[in-house]
Amino acid sequence: MHPMVKPALRRGWRDLNTVQFGMAPAHAMVLGPVDLATGSFLSLLDGTRGLPLLRDEGRRMGLPDGHVDGLVERLAASGLLDDATGGGPDADALRKKVTVVDRLRPDLAALSLVSPEPGGAMGRLATRRSLRVQVRGAGRVGVVLAALLAGAGVGSVDVRDVGLVEPWDVAPGGLPADAIGERREEAARRAVRRAAPERPPRTAASGEDPGFSLVILAPRKGVDVHAPDPVSAEPLIASGTPHLYAGVVEGTGVVGPLVLPGETGCAGCLDQGRADRDACWPRLVAQWRSGRQHQVESCDLALASVVAALAAGHALAFLDGRVPSSAGARWEVSSPGLDWHSRPVWAHPACPCAATEKGKEEHTSEDGESHETMAGQQRSTSLSLTAHAARRSGTWRAHV
Ligand SMILES: [Zn+2]
After folding, report:
1. How far is the CA of 241 from the centre of ligand 1 (A)?
2. In the predicted model, what is the mean pLDDT of the chain?
3. Dist. CA 351 → ligand 1 center (Å)
């Protein structure tokens, strides 16, 4: 172990004996009392020295025996310590790829803020390289989203779509103007490759298809964003594949729900819940789906980009082993106010996904029409988190 005080947290002394790690309240921590010698010793915890050398340095600085080990333990217990050599064999392999790690260094630092254990951040970054994600939909949202995931170190990001690139598909970070007229799928995959810090690992020519850790549905058509088709998600539900919805409909951006099949509300639950609250819902959806769309649909470029980015953030949180707040909820943002709010997607008893079995003990309110409060959202997420605490993203891999 080469202990390192997490460099992502900016250090500042509140007074002579109290040090604050971090500026922003979300991850800041105060440590004290810290005497002067210990304070100057902290600067040696930069990942370049192992424990034996640190103990020598401590003795040289007049720190009592056992003080260094005690300090390291205290920092580790507070989640302030990283290990420059930790994270396991995959992390070691990644460390050897210096140019790749240099590209991902800010992401690694960000991961260290949410990985309490020393070496955890590099371990998670290494895990990302082994994951397979599929993005369905290569429009303004889908391609940017796929490129973000590849750029953040997800090893394999597959994009699926049909047709040719239209001029209005072009977006910064997504499909470039020189791809107009090319096959959407090919152009999208090229954009993903360009965003990745390294070439994707070769997939085995033979053997079993390992499936996807996550499938993201980012349809180009507004109706498919507003009213996702439960039928097209049936294979994902049946195979137990986690999937996330994201897109833009008219002037509204949508991220969620993240569906953990059988555990959180799915597209079918959403559809049934809406039909319960509005008898006209099925009639409207049928019209929206059948009507021919002759015009280019509205899709604000900034809105599309922010949806892609937030969806990528939720996807990465899930892939890193956490349960983001889009599990069982839709985050929505509308022009021109652009304030995000979430609406719950309750598991519906009539939906064949069976999430309601899981949800019975969790949900006491069926009032899905009102906007979810932040407190309610946190409650639901924390319950969900308890249910998934022991499950790493790898356990969700499934066939599709
Ligand atoms: Zn369902």
Report:
1. 13
2. 88
3. 5
